[in-house]
Specification:
Strand order of the largest sheet: 1-2
Radius of gyration: 18 Å
Distance between the termini: 61 Å
Strand content: under 5%
Length: about 220
């Protein structure tokens, strides 16, 4: 019996990036809060050198800003700019959905469908934590299966901004509708139907845009 190849060890800087990004997107580090390298290193259990590299990456995508005499701060949420974020993400998500529907293997299609099913189940129970965990897992599986590194690299910072926006204004969201849109996307991918996958992606962006407009207009 052939042994399964060991999973490559992730770089500490990548581990640090994911951990800090999660703190920011879930508002554990709220907008405007100071970002102190030593404190972050202790909080996530990763050395200061990889934390420093991760912070530089987060600065490059606008989640962390450097202020004169104040050091590093978590960037504010820009309501006016968020519609542009969604408009740009819409284009990239269409490309990714199409690629995934065409390129995913059977196991990946099943994984994506299972993530969407988890979202639907969580929404039915009004379990926001489980819903967002399944949402993150679906994004990761979709990005991997698309095999389009250029589109994924461009969309990931936008996904993070949308996730943070959701956590900040979740009172205005309808997670059952969000789950329905993800299910449409997943079904298109699972059946290898590019047009349906793109329709699901568009439905999801329509939902996020409507959600954003409700927040702006309130």
């Amino acid at each position: 019996m052939q042994k399964k190849a060991p999973t490559p060890r992730r770089r500490d800087a990548d581990v640090a990036y994911d951990a800090i990004e999660a703190l920011i997107s879930t508002l554990a580090l709220p907008p405007g809060s100071p970002v102190v390298e030593a404190e972050i290193s202790e909080r996530i259990g990763v050395g200061r050198t990889p934390v420093r590299e991760a912070l530089m990456r987060l600065m490059s995508i606008g989640l962390i800003a450097q202020q004169p005499r104040r050091g590093l701060l978590v960037s504010p949420i820009d309501l006016a700019n968020h519609l542009d974020v969604i408009q740009t993400r819409r284009v990239l998500e269409r490309v990714i959905a199409s690629c995934t529907a065409r390129r995913a293997n059977a196991a990946e299609r099943q994984q994506i469908q299972e993530c969407a099913d988890r979202m639907v189940a969580a929404a039915g129970k009004d379990d926001l934590k489980a819903y967002m965990r399944a949402d993150h897992d679906l994004d990761t599986a979709n990005h991997t299966a698309s095999r389009n590194a250029s589109a994924v690299t461009a969309v990931v910072p936008l996904v993070t901004q949308c996730r943070r926006f959701w956590y900040a204004y979740q009172h205005a969201g309808e997670i059952k509708e969000g789950a329905r849109c993800h299910a449409l996307l997943a079904h298109g991918i699972a059946t290898g139907d590019e047009a349906r996958a793109v329709e699901g992606s568009d439905a999801l962006m329509d939902y996020l845009e409507a959600f954003t407009r409700r927040v702006i207009n309130n």
